[in-house]
Task: inverse folding
């Protein structure tokens, strides 16, 4: 395949997908890359971009515009969350029942929960209101001295001494609990349920907490962590069989069929908007239960923190394995001079790139030059 | 074709030369060579000399079978090692069928010579299965094949025979050891343990490095249990095991699943899983976790409220040759299969007993509401409550 052909934009429509498939069969590598061929969400455009063998930036294609800027829950550093039900509608037409942390008392829970953004040194307060039929809680891995109702948050046991929760709960049927702590260190943190986490976290009770340093435009109190754009990427999986019957299904023999970034599977994922030359801060959080290796094409990414701890020596990589429960901060720099609409794929190299039985989906999105 | 009780037809297996046969052949052949050859003469001298070695540390293990328990009341057939150290030679067969999981920790100091006598006691439940066994010290530098326990390039110990493994301990750190005969199966069945080699710098250091000082240490031996594999061996169906279908049902710390993990050492209800994973510490203690993953899956332990500094991996300090500090802080301790990792945390200051949970963040392997979880507890007492630690996991 010549470079020229490989960069050719193939106009097609849904009835002519066969032609695409033939091209896909032409080269295995091409087929992998083609899973990122952009299919716009809009009804107007079904343009398909066949990316080249080279790692060169992809040519522009019509794409759904989406705001990838950091969206934070209002009211910080005091937050209210409601544990309730929701759904994730997947690109293959499935609609999966979820539980989650909702920013209000009336709506469905989003997946993941809202971003909780605070500043280093803030006295953080999170009040959890429970609208589910069972006890719910929040644990804050990476935070010390978390108080619940003013006392040190502690694991809960039933009358027989069996563990029922890793921390204090908002009881079923309208109960609530307030967690307070000081956000001592800047960085990226998960928050997630500590009550039967093997069930409740899998059901969607997780989200991201971002602690910014007092210096704006840096991830940490270190000029080397300066960035222009930041992108929170909460990774997770869904095993729909488990979601259909969470109280009657063993969490063992877990078989996820959907692989999500911020609760969405490609092509529903939001692209990360950045300008040419921008330093993009990727905040990877794995709320799922499987490893995901995030590969970025067309730029390098430098690891500046793991679990909100800066390493002695930053390492640069093109694939970053993100382990369940961990957070990783990496900075990539968009090359200078690339045109608006240029795309840089970022995707799960463990090939969580399907939506159920449908290919070209899953844990994938783009850095898109604006 | 014969009829089984349940009406299913079962083919009489065609006899073919298996890997197991090959290993058996190799093991016995080598032993015969040793018995008659010059090599064997050297070994005999070594064996005779050992009790005079002033640097010698002597341990004795018996390879056999047994059963372990899970918190849901089930019991699983295992292979493993019984501790024969200080057991009179005419009593060792009293431990046949009493394998423990995990095997005893072997603790010695850099510069000492480790002699481990392995006796193959045979199996009680499967007298037909005359597998040999070996000891493989995973990660020991400059191991020679003779003492490395890899049966394809050394010998293995047939039933009712003994062999003494010898190592000159040069490199401090945490090492796994396991039987290497039919290794995938024997490791899953429980023939696994941990070696701690202490540095010359002192008992309370991980390496010859002042920054690795600790007050208390806990071995966290990590493994999984696939019930089908154990069932197949108990019922003479091991040929039916398809390892590509490996799907564990239990996730274990020191051979136990939560809440058994927090029961005391030598708990009477768990006679063959003697090692507690309960981490009892004083406020302000520097606490060392020696993680040793001989399962077949990645595992990542976290304890909300506590962060760790990883100071060593695979029995190597995290420093480069120039001495640069490569240790790192993290909230999650990822341990790959076959890997060991040393992590130190400072216990938070508490004025009353405060409990933390250390659990596997691969959440399908942690289950707080029933059995099977890879989880334990960290109990932090006010400063000065606990006396000095008398050994790992105490």
Result:
């Amino acid at each position: 395949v010549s470079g020229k052909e490989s960069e050719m934009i193939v106009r097609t429509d849904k009835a002519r997908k066969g032609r695409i498939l033939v091209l896909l069969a032409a080269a295995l590598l091409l087929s992998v890359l083609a899973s990122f061929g952009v299919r716009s969400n809009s009804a107007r455009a079904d343009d398909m971009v066949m990316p080249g063998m080279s790692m060169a930036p992809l040519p522009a294609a019509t794409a759904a515009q989406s705001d990838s800027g950091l969206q934070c829950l209002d009211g910080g550093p005091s937050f209210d969350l409601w544990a309730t039900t929701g759904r994730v509608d997947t690109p293959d037409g499935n609609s999966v029942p979820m539980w989650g942390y909702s920013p209000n008392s009336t709506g469905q829970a989003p997946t993941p929960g809202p971003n909780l953004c605070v500043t280093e040194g803030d006295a953080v307060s999170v009040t959890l209101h429970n609208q589910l039929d069972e006890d719910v809680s929040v644990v804050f891995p990476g935070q010390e001295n978390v108080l619940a109702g003013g006392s040190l948050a502690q694991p809960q046991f039933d009358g027989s001494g069996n563990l029922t929760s890793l921390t204090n709960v908002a009881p079923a049927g309208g109960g609530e609990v307030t967690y307070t702590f000081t956000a001592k260190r800047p960085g990226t943190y998960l928050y997630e349920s500590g009550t039967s986490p093997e069930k409740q976290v899998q059901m969607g009770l997780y989200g991201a907490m971002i602690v910014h340093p007092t210096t704006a435009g840096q991830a940490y109190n270190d000029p080397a962590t300066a960035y222009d754009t930041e992108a929170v990427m909460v990774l997770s999986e869904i095993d729909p069989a488990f979601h259909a019957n969470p109280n009657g299904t063993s969490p063992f023999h877990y078989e996820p069929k959907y692989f999500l970034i911020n609760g969405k599977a490609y092509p529903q994922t939001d692209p990360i908007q950045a300008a040419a030359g921008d330093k993009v801060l990727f905040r990877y959080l794995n709320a799922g239960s499987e490893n995901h290796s995030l590969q970025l094409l067309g730029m390098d990414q430098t690891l500046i923190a793991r679990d909100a701890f800066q390493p002695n020596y930053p390492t640069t990589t093109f694939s970053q394995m993100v382990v369940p429960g961990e957070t990783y901060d990496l900075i990539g720099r968009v090359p200078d001079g690339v045109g608006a609409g240029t795309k840089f794929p970022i995707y799960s190299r463990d090939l969580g790139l399907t939506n159920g039985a449908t290919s070209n989906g899953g844990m994938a999105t783009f850095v898109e030059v604006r | 074709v014969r009829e089984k009780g349940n009406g299913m037809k079962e083919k009489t297996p065609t006899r073919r030369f298996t890997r197991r046969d090959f290993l058996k052949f190799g093991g016995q052949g080598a032993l015969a060579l040793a018995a008659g050859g010059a090599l064997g003469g050297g070994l005999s001298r070594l064996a005779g000399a050992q009790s005079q070695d002033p640097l010698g540390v002597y341990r004795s293990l018996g390879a056999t079978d047994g059963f372990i328990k899970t918190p849901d009341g089930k019991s699983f057939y295992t292979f493993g090692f019984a501790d024969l150290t200080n057991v009179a030679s005419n009593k060792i067969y009293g431990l046949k069928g009493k394998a423990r999981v995990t095997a005893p920790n072997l603790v010695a100091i850099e510069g000492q010579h480790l002699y481990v006598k392995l006796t193959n006691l045979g199996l009680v439940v499967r007298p037909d299965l005359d597998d040999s066994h070996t000891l493989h010290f995973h990660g020991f530098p400059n191991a020679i094949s003779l003492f490395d326990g890899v049966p394809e390039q050394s010998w293995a110990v047939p039933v009712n025979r003994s062999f003494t493994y010898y190592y000159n301990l040069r490199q401090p750190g945490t090492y796994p050891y396991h039987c290497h005969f039919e290794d995938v199966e024997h490791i899953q069945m429980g023939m696994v343990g941990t070696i701690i080699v202490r540095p010359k710098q002192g008992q309370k250091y991980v390496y010859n490095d002042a920054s690795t000082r600790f007050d208390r240490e806990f071995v966290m031996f990590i493994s999984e249990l696939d019930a089908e594999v154990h069932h197949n061996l108990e019922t003479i169906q091991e040929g039916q095991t398809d390892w590509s279908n490996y799907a564990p049902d239990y996730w274990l710390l020191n051979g136990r699943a939560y809440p058994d993990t927090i029961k005391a050492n030598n708990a009477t209800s768990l006679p063959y899983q003697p090692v507690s994973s309960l981490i009892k510490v004083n406020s302000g203690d520097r606490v060392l976790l020696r993680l040793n993953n001989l399962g077949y899956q990645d595992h990542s332990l976290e304890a909300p409220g506590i962060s760790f500094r990883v100071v060593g991996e695979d029995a190597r300090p995290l420093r480069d040759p120039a001495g640069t500090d490569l240790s790192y802080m993290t909230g999650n301790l990822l341990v790959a299969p076959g890997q060991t990792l040393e992590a130190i945390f400072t216990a938070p200051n508490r004025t009353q007993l405060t409990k933390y949970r250390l659990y596997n963040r691969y959440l399908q392997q942690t289950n707080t509401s029933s059995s099977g979880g890879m989880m334990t507890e960290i109990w932090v007492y006010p400063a000065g409550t606990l006396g000095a630690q008398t050994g790992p996991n105490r």
